[in-house]
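User: Predict the complex with flavin-adenine dinucleotide.
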Amino acid sequence: MLTTTHKEELKVLLGEDVEFDLSLSLYTSIRVGGLADAFISLKNAEELQKTILWARTRNIPFFILGKGSNTLFRDGGFRGLVLHLGKGFRNFALVKEEGKNVWVEAEGGVPTQQMVRWCVEQGFTGLERLAGVPGTLGGNVFMNAGTYLGEIGEIVEEVSICDGKGKLQTIKKEKLDFEYRKSNLAPSSVVLKVLLKLEKGDKEAIEKNVREVFEKRGLTQPVEIPNLGSVFKNAGKKKAWELIEEAGCKGVRVGQARVSEKHANFIINEGGATAKDVLILIGLIKDKVKESSGIVLETEIKVVGE
Ligand SMILES: Cc1cc2nc3c(=O)[nH]c(=O)nc-3n(C[C@H](O)[C@H](O)[C@H](O)COP(=O)(O)OP(=O)(O)OC[C@H]3O[C@@H](n4cnc5c(N)ncnc54)[C@H](O)[C@@H]3O)c2cc1C
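Assistant: Here is the predicted structure with flavin-adenine dinucleotide placed in the model:
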């Protein structure tokens, strides 16, 4: 819990970039979550470093939030600082070309779909794998986001981070380890910049590919209702949604949280769902899937806070 002195110090340090007791439901795609003691929209790396050092010397926890498309904040909110890469972290540019290859540098707060659209316009291929995946590039790298077309880890050349001590460093791909929906980046490290290796391709073919992915998503996912994306990681030979369907959980509801009829690995907020509703539903799905298949599902989403 932040004291009055902490709040005063943060105001001096960050001015209007810090807000207190802000509802995290405004910053998560499922529209659920309690209050953040302090929500900080960071302008630049210097401000981030200052804030991390301030928090470290006072032993105050912090959490890095992108677009909140894979994060469930509990109803009690977050006791500490929620750090959000604000408008100062939304730049990206072509930095190198060599034959068919192109290298694009993007800041951690860039909305993924803005970058996908730009790649289509430029005729760059490689990022179609993230077509329709919400979030920021920083969140994508931390989670190693991907689709049936591939994962972001496969095209990352280097990542620039600010570590938990406020130190800036660049990690080359040889030192990065990406697994299914997981990277080896420490939870306290903030992805500031990503260097991606793409290729020049056929613009029309790229556009068609991206359009098809979007159409498929629209047909198979409840994109129009607040949700968190896939709640569970795939496990075993079957997809998580198949296991959940077979366990009879499709359409099951707890409070205002419900297992989507369109995609059984999605939990939707039908309006006013609480994190408690979502967590009870998650527990119920896990129990039913274990009972029917023997498989213990692991959550893909990050559950944070009190
Ligand atoms: C409708 C829908 C469809 C989805 N489809 C897919 C899909 O097909 N494939 C897929 O992989 N995912 C999918 N997701 C999940 C989600 O989009 C991805 O996990 C995405 O990478 C999360 O990005 P974010 O910025 O929203 O991260 P957040 O939810 O804000 O954060 C997720 C994690 O990343 C960390 N993080 C965020 N930003 C940074 C940063 N700059 N530096 C370090 N750590 C950071 C957070 O601390 C947290 O641990 C879907 C979600 C939704 C709602």
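The chain is about 30% helix and 30% strand.
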